[in-house]
Amino acid sequence: MPRKRAAGFDNQREHIIEQAAVLFARNGFSGTSMNEVAEACGLSKASLYHYVSDKYQLLVYICEGHIERLRALVREVAQMEQEPQEKLRLMVQRFVEEYADAQNEHRVLTEDVKFLLPQDQKRILDGEREVVAAMAQAMIGVRPELEASRMAKPLTMLLFGMINWMFMWLKPDGDLTHEKMAVVVTEMLFGGIGAVSLEPPQIKKKK
User: Fold this and answer.
1) Other CB atoms within 10 Å distance of the CB of residue 143
2) Res. 3: pLDDT tops 50
3) Contacts 24+ apart (CB under 8 A), 163-168
4) Does residue 125 lie within any of the structural domains?
5) pTM for this predicted structure
6) Residue 139: which of 76, 55, 196, 199 has the closest Cα?
7) Which range has the worst mean pLDDT, 28-32, 39-43, 117-121, 148-152?
8) Measured at the alpha carbon of residue 164, what is the angle toward residues 140 and 153, in degrees to the nearest 5?
9) pLDDT, averaged across the chain
10) What is the per-residue pLDDT across 11-34, written as a single tens digit (0 to 9) for each?
11) 159 touches 93 (CB < 8 A)
12) What is the pLDDT of residue 2?
């Protein structure tokens, strides 16, 4: 018979994953050892292997967990009965606020996904595509003609460009908070989304 998990097993593993995310974000996946993870968690290395099989599994848990939370976020907002503009605004704000609580996980996903095996990388990237598609649909809800022009995805990627790299410069203890920046991002988005030309830009040829 399989051995039953001790009470608190899942909580302890979540703690290990969180600590691993801190270390991976600070030192990189390659630059972090399982000894360091065990020390950060106050465990022996032998005890650590009771909860996870290896460092690679920790990377998978971190990336999958972050993507699953983002997928749940967009699905929840997409199902809300709200006007398109408010739905898009809420989705953007929820994203920025989620990143505030998952800066380490987001950094690991951004910088260390390259270390995943092809099948795991594909699963993670498929989840990212779902998130991007949901945001694009929210954009189309505000401006329906984006769909025919095929500009919904490019605008969505520009939006994520603002959000995804915020962790590189936004200081946790600075005057600007993620909550304040969520408002700034939505103000920029709604202030400019209607001004975007749907015609391909004309590139002048040099004479």
Assistant:
1) 19
2) no
3) 163/92, 163/95, 163/96, 163/99, 164/106, 164/110, 166/96, 166/99, 167/99, 167/103, 167/106, 167/107
4) yes
5) 0.82
6) 196
7) 148-152
8) 25
9) 87
10) 999 999 999 999 999 999 999 999
11) no
12) 40
Domain of residue 101: give its range: 56-191
Amino acid at 119: Q
Average pLDDT over residues 113-131: 95
How many domains is the chain partitioned into structurally? 1
Phi, psi of 94 (to 5 degrees): -65, -35
Spatial contact of 185 and 132, defined as CB atoms under 8 Å apart: no
Q: Is residue 93 part of a domain?
A: yes
SS3 content of the chain, % helix, strand, coil (to 5): 75, 0, 25
Closest CA to 64 of 29, 111, 116: 116
CATH no. for residue 131?
1.10.357.10
Residue 25 included in any domain? no
The answer to whether position 86 is within a domain reads yes
| Residues 39-78: tens digit of each pLDDT | 999 999 999 999 999 999 999 999 999 999 999 999 999 9
Which two structure tokens, joined as six digits, stand for 67?
Answer: 């993507």
Which tokens belong to 169?
Answer: 């410069």
